[in-house]
TrEMBL record:
Keywords: Membrane, Mitochondrion, Mitochondrion inner membrane, Transmembrane, Transmembrane helix. GO terms for biological process: cristae formation. The lineage of its organism: Eukaryota, Metazoa, Chordata, Craniata, Vertebrata. This is MICOS complex subunit MIC13. Pfam families: QIL1. It is a single-pass membrane protein.
Length: 118
C-alpha cells in the first residue's frame, strides 16, 4: 500500500512541476517573439541569483548546514541569447527537410547498390 501511495505522490509532484513549467512558459510568453523572450531572460538573470542566495541562507538557518559559495558563472565574449533564435530556426529547418533528404539519400544508395551488383 505504501508503495502505491509513494508512486502516486511521485506522479503528482512530477505532474505539478511539469504543469507549472508549462504555465510559466505560457504566462511569460517565452515562445513568442525574440524580444519578449530576451526580456524574460534578462528579468530571470536579475531575479534568480538573489532568490537562490536567499533560499540557501534559509536552508542554512533551518538545518545548521553550511553551503559553500558557488563560483561566479563564466563570462563569454558573445551573448548566447542573441544567437538562440537563429539556432532554433536552423534546427527546425533541418528537421523539416530531413524526410526528403533521407528519401533522396536512400534512393541514391539503392541506385549505387544496383550498379555494384550488376
Amino acid at each position: 500500500m505504501v508503495l502505491r501511495v509513494w508512486s502516486l505522490m511521485r506522479f503528482l509532484i512530477k505532474g505539478s512541476v511539469a504543469g507549472g513549467a508549462i504555465y510559466l512558459v505560457y504566462d511569460q510568453d517565452l515562445l513568442g517573439s525574440s524580444d519578449k523572450s530576451q526580456a524574460a531572460l534578462q528579468k530571470a538573470e536579475e531575479v534568480v541569483p538573489p532568490a537562490v542566495y536567499q533560499f540557501s541562507q534559509y536552508v542554512c538557518e533551518q538545518t545548521g548546514l553550511k553551503i559553500p559559495q558557488l563560483p561566479a558563472p563564466p563570462k563569454f565574449n558573445f551573448h548566447i541569447r542573441d544567437y538562440w533564435n537563429s539556432g532554433i530556426i536552423k534546427v527546425m529547418s533541418a528537421l523539416s527537410v530531413a524526410p526528403s533528404k533521407a528519401r533522396e539519400y536512400s534512393k541514391e544508395g539503392w541506385e549505387y547498390l544496383k550498379e555494384r551488383t550488376k
